[in-house]
Design a protein that fits this description.
This protein has about 260 residues and is α/β, with parallel strands linked by helices. Helix 4 packs parallel to helix 5. The protein is about 45% helix and about 15% strand. It has a single domain, classed as Phosphoenolpyruvate-binding domains (TIM Barrel, Alpha-Beta Barrel), CATH 3.20.20.60. The longest helix is centred in the last third of the chain and has 17 residues. It has an eight-stranded parallel β-barrel with strand order 1-2-3-4-5-6-7-8, surrounded by seven helices. The chain is globular, with a radius of gyration of 18 Å.
């Protein structure tokens, strides 16, 4: 089965740089994956992206060495199994706030006796290889989002679920549950304390510490606390920022009508 380089980099103590794609554009997904990211996260939670769009993006990403991870909209076992069958090598599940939530998600990611995943990897065997069944349980990376104060309060019991591969910390929703603004609190001590708690708990429990990062400085601090997967941004953000800069450069000598 094709190697999951995210797990390899993590277990060697390295840092995984994961880009994120939100749009229903296989060409754009392929273009971004060609840049050289270790992994690409295909976002079905906060994006105009359905199953067919997700599948097409996975096919585009597979033209590159980038490892495909899918963030599903919710802790829904049928969809979790579908994205794995489509060839995702990792799944990110949002809003996991208890050990029971985490256990239900992890169970959906593994074949018996480790879990309850149903057999039918329609594309998993094409991307992964003919020995998919024999190797899938050791290759797939189940990740949960820690993004509420309730999850932080239960962090040890959540991360102790057998088979959990890692977390993907969500600073926006965490800020909201802390009574803060989701886009203006990246330097707030309350949020930073939650990040530090989560990153250190991951090291304690031997799971991958991942985090959504709004900027490089935030990422550097998270890495100092133990983060080993960070996102430098997403297709929507890069397009918007690049368009705004191009317009500003030209507005300097072409006044608005």
């Amino acid at each position: 089965m094709r190697e999951n380089r995210v797990k390899t980099i993590w277990k060697k103590g390295g840092i995984v740089l994961a880009g994120s794609v939100n749009l229903d554009s296989p060409y754009l997904a392929e273009l971004i994956a060609q840049v050289g990211f270790d992994s690409i996260i295909v976002d079905m939670q906060h994006a105009p992206l359905d199953y067919k769009g997700m599948l097409a993006n996975l096919q585009a990403i597979s033209t590159t060495p980038a490892i495909p991870i899918v963030r599903v909209p919710w802790n829904h076992p049928p969809l979790i199994m579908q994205v794995l069958d489509a060839g995702a090598y990792g799944v990110i599940c949002p809003m996991v706030n208890s050990r029971a939530d985490c256990q239900a998600f992890v169970d959906a990611c593994y074949y018996a006796p480790k879990g309850m995943r149903s057999w039918g990897p329609i594309r998993g065997t094409l991307y992964g290889g003919p020995d998919y069944f024999e190797q899938a349980n050791d290759t797939i990376l189940p990740m949960i989002q820690i993004e509420t104060i309730q999850a932080i309060e239960r962090i040890d019991e959540i991360l102790s679920v057998p088979g959990l591969g890692g977390i993907y910390f969500g600073p926006g929703d965490m800020s909201i549950t802390l009574g803060l603004h989701p886009q203006k609190s990246y330097e707030n001590p309350k949020l930073l304390n939650a990040v530090e708690t989560a990153m250190k708990a991951c090291r304690k429990h031997g799971v991958l510490a991942g985090i959504m990062t709004p900027n490089a400085e935030f990422a550097k601090q998270a890495i100092a606390w133990g983060a080993q997967l960070v996102t430098p941004g997403s297709d929507i953000g890069w397009i918007r920022a690049g368009s705004a800069k191009a317009l500003a450069d030209f507005r300097a000598f072409v006044p608005a009508s």
